[in-house]
Amino acid sequence: MIYKTYQNLISWGKMSTSKIQFDNFESSYSNRMQSMRSSAVRDLFAAASRSDIISLSGGMPDISVLPLDQVAKAASDSIKEEGLQALQYGSTNGRVQTRQLVCDLVKDFFIKAKPEDVIITSGAQQALDLIGKVFINPGDTILVEAPTYLGALQAFSAYEPNIVSVEMDHSGLIIEELEATLEKLGRASKPKFLYTIPSFQNPTGVSLTVERRHKLVDVCAKYNVVIIEDNPYGRIHFNDEVLPTLKSLDNNVVYLGTVSKVFAPGLRCGCIIAPPGILAKINLAKQGGDLCGSAMCQVMVEHYFHDTDWRGTMKKIIPVYEERKNAILNALDKYFPPEASWTKPEGGLFIWVMLPSFINTDELLNVALDNGVTFAPGSGFYPGGHAKSSFRMAFCFEEPKNLDIAVKRLADVINERLDLYRAFVKAGVLKE
Predict the structure, then answer these.
(1) What is the C-alpha separation between 363 and 425, in angstroms, rounded?
(2) Which of 32, 65, 257, 296 lies 20 to 30 Å from 139, alpha-carbon distance?
(3) How far is CA 181 from CA 91, 141, 165, 185, 366, in A?
(4) The domain at 91-292 falls in which architecture?
């Protein structure tokens, strides 16, 4: 009967009361709703909007460098030149012009595709939901990285799968662990697919090495497991090396893309590139979901990428992200205790921090909020809520000076707990 306890969320928003709401329709909901949970990052948006909070929780791209006059012209031209088409229903798979644009853009990732290989989606998040709808029956096994993108866990969980995590290290998914997992599962529990973010992974920021990419494709082909490759951060790299996508190594890979990190997340424009049979099923599933995406948004995306120096804009923002990444890494070196460790990404928007096992970052978050900083607790990035001693920090949105302040605030909270732990160990109350 209890719908939701609002005490923490209300306190984060500086409201004065808390309450429990009762839901009289509880018995009417489907069983799948019991396995669905809210994203901690989405829940933190209200808190992150407070002026006294420095947010390290959400991976919002910094769109302040966008040439807004040119974006405005792209929007205006969309109406002037194709208003009747842009404001009308469109095809389920998206405008052929937008699909051709996708084919042109993914050449940068060594992918060869034709418009008929592409479906345009309402962001990559809708693509994840469509993947779940097409592939997953209740109880089916799927594989994900450990940890993985919490939005993917949300999308897949709606279809009630058995989610099995495969361990990662600083070089990405451990191929030996993947093969051992597949052997253990056997034919009876053969996974429907493996979901992976090989480049600048969310939440860890690490990238799968070229050698492992080849091995991953080979192992999944050997066991006949579909690969779902999500590549939202592939263009945000801090060196000149562009790693080959899995899709470029094996055309059977299902590739997900988005313009959210290179243009505007508010337009909700993503894509799926897949083999014909899979794409036909996704198109059918999408018909029942939204009939078609926004033609207006698609036309605007076309104008932005055709009519502006979008590559020049990316060249402006990437050094900004790198400066912020370096600022947060320097702050971690300066303020965090020696018991902590963290990733050092060469691109993307995130850093993954690992603390001693006795520190629960779900509980730590409440204290951190009181100290004026947010982060994303690690438990949300695992299907079983594991890794409670880890957390994700996003360095993409805040200025370097704020990142230093935020890490210092967080370090104060962590060091306070470590000091208490050390005191208990010294007193003999706890074993080291």
Answers:
(1) 21
(2) 257
(3) 40, 11, 9, 6, 36
(4) 3-Layer(aba) Sandwich (3.40)
